[in-house]
Design goal:
The protein has about 300 residues and is of the alpha+beta class. The protein has 2 domains: about 35-55 and about 165-290, D-amino Acid Aminotransferase, Chain A, domain 1; about 80-160, no CATH class. Helices cover about 30% and strands about 20% of the residues. It contains 8 helices and 10 strands. A 6-stranded antiparallel sheet has the order 8-7-6-5-9-10. α1 (about 5-15) crosses α2 (about 15-30) and α3 (about 40-50) packs across α8 (about 270-280). The two termini are about 35 Å apart. The relative contact order is 0.18.
């Protein structure tokens, strides 16, 4: 249900936030949102959105500020090499940039420009797009409180990819330092596909295949190292998704996500949604504030 932000705001005002959320949830997921006894991950994320203020965790979702947290927890070797951080687009020196890089707005999700060859990019179009993001507050789109107070900046990092030009994104679902499973995104920019696994790398077999099944994802040789990084980054959070890149036997940090997909990402199979949700204890959340402050990290 793709609605413009103005229409969303009007519907929320007319219907009330809870009823609006239930309506959108039912349309997207195909089952009713139970806020009295949420069981799936998607339901629990909606409960968190409606009942908690995650604002104190903002530094951990800011694409630049989180680097300091990662540096202290697991070390510099897990950080994607930084090219620069900028308040304004016109501060960027195009000529000094490497041929390939990734440009991101620090204060949102998915606000990225992948540049594989800077000599083929429309720099003016990139300026217009990035300036649009810088003027926007991601919170106004999703109402995820963790993004509400973030300042928009531009971060440029090296482009990490494997020999095929793709980059597998390992998204680990973690509770208090324990990884309960993962889904792996790949071919994200052309033919997005994913597979879902539990912590022992047993796959949740897809039920809604369009065309041939996606390629198998072998258990990484450094799986225990991946789990160790997840443990150290998530150990005091009741729930967080830790996104890591794994390519050529190297591990790089991607991001931390406390309300993945805003609770509106569709799981296949649906039972994996309930599997991930089962481990999340909402008793660890207060009514209005996440119990763990960044200062405690």
């Amino acid at each position: 249900m793709l609605l413009k932000s103005g229409i969303k705001k009007t519907l929320r005002q007319i219907l009330g936030m809870e009823y609006y959320t239930k309506l959108i949830f039912r349309f997207i997921h195909g089952y009713s949102l139970n806020l009295d006894n949420p069981r799936s991950l998607s339901e629990k994320v909606q409960w968190i959105n409606l009942n908690c203020n995650l604002g104190p965790l903002a530094p951990l979702v800011d694409k630049y500020d989180v680097r300091d947290f990662v540096l202290k927890r697991v070390g510099e070797k897990y950080l994607v090499p930084l090219i620069g951080i900028y308040d304004h687009f016109d501060q960027i020196d195009f000529h000094s940039l490497p041929k390939a890089f990734v440009m991101k707005a620090t204060h949102g999700s998915g606000w990225n420009i992948i540049v594989k060859n800077k000599y083929q990019i429309n720099w003016n179009a990139a300026r217009i797009q990035m300036n649009k993001w810088l003027k926007s507050n991601y919170y106004n789109t999703t109402l995820e409180t963790v993004y509400r107070d973030l300042k928009g900046r531009i971060i440029i990092e090296e482009l990490i990819q494997d020999s095929s030009g793709d980059l597998k994104d390992f998204k680990f679902y973690c509770c208090n330092g324990v990884t309960i499973g993962a889904h792996i995104d790949f071919e994200r920019y052309e033919n997005h596909q994913f597979r879902v696994y539990d912590a022992q790398w047993n796959e949740f077999i897809k039920e809604n295949l369009n065309g041939k099944p996606p390629p198998l994802i072998p258990k990484p040789d450094k799986y225990e190292d991946l789990l160790d990084v997840c443990h150290r980054l998530s150990r005091e959070f009741s729930f967080v998704r830790v996104d890591l890149y794994y390519t050529d036997e190297r591990i790089f940090f991607g991001e931390l996500t406390f309300t993945p997909g805003n609770g509106l990402a569709v799981f296949d199979p649906v039972r994996s949604d309930f599997y991930f949700g089962e481990a999340i204890d909402l008793e660890n959340y207060s009514n209005h504030l996440w119990k763990h402050q960044p200062s405690q990290c």
